[in-house]
């Protein structure tokens, strides 16, 4: 996409997408070590391209003053073409097709088993030392590690998940669980935790109790 060819603009876009709150021009500028005016220029270009959306909002942690309410930016909802966000329908398609071929009478159970096996195989194929976040990023999940958990900000199977949520989220859960097993990460556990605009799975330290999920 032409709007993301510029490296500064792409970095700003990635930064805004990675945050769990609307971002001001000042915050974006400080994060990228550029001037506020340059950040504003590129952020507004991203708004014009439909990649970000904007509004005026006072910071929740500050008392509202008499000045102008700051402009804030956040990722625009919906699917963007190309690889932002990335989709991997080929992977889930192969799993479902193989499941039907192996066990047409109970293709659902077969698909869950195959999804876990595929995750394990991918994990085993990673060279020693490969991080969970790096592997998930390569698979298109857009992970964000905030120490307490790994949030998956993109669902590579988004369109199918919207139509067959229970099935696809179950396959995704089984796949990521298998991936962690294949990577030897017994310290981490995949949990179903649906939230708007993100993958239905989160990764947390094994044995922790997740926060209540916000259903879509």
Q: What features would you describe in this structure?
A:
By secondary structure, the protein is of the alpha+beta class. The chain is 44% helix and 13% strand. It has a four-stranded antiparallel β-sheet, covered by helices on one side. Strands 1-3-2 form a three-stranded antiparallel β-sheet. Strand 6 (188-192) and strand 7 (201-205) form a beta hairpin. The longest helix has 18 residues, at 107-124. It starts with 6 loop residues before the first helix and ends in an 11-residue tail after the last strand.
Describe the structure concisely for a colleague:
The protein is of the alpha+beta class and 216 residues long. It has eight helices and seven strands; from the N terminus they run αβααββαααββααββ.
Rg measurement, Å: 20 Å
Termini, distance in Å?
29 Å
**Share of residues in helices:** 40-55%
Low-confidence stretches: 211-216
Tell me the β content: 5-15%
Shape summary: elongated
Mean pLDDT: 82
The total count of helices amounts to 8
Number of strands: 7
Which strand order do you get reading across the main beta sheet? Answer: 4-5-7-6
Structural class comes to alpha+beta
Specify the biggest β-sheet: 4 strands, antiparallel
How do the helices and strands follow one another from N- to C-terminus?
HEHHEEHHHEEHHEE
């Amino acid at each position: 996409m032409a709007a993301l060819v510029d490296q500064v603009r792409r970095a700003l876009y990635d930064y805004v997408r990675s945050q769990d709150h609307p971002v001001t021009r000042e915050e974006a500028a400080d994060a990228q070590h550029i001037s506020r005016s340059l950040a504003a220029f590129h952020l507004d270009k991203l708004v014009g391209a439909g990649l970000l959306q904007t509004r005026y909002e006072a910071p929740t942690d500050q008392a509202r003053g008499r000045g102008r309410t700051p402009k804030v930016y956040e990722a625009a909802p919906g699917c963007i073409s190309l690889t932002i966000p990335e989709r991997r329908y080929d992977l889930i398609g192969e799993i479902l097709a193989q499941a039907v071929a192996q066990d047409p009478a109970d293709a659902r159970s077969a698909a869950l088993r195959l999804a876990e096996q595929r995750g394990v195989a991918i994990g085993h194929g990673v060279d020693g030392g490969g991080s969970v976040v790096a592997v998930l990023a390569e698979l298109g999940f857009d992970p964000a590690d905030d120490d307490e958990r790994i949030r998956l900000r993109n669902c590579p199977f988004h369109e199918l998940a919207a139509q067959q949520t229970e099935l696809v989220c179950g396959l995704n859960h089984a796949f990521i669980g298998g991936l962690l097993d294949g990577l030897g990460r017994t310290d981490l556990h995949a949990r179903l935790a649906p939230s708007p605009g993100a993958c239905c799975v989160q990764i947390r330290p094994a044995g922790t109790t997740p926060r209540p999920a916000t259903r879509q």
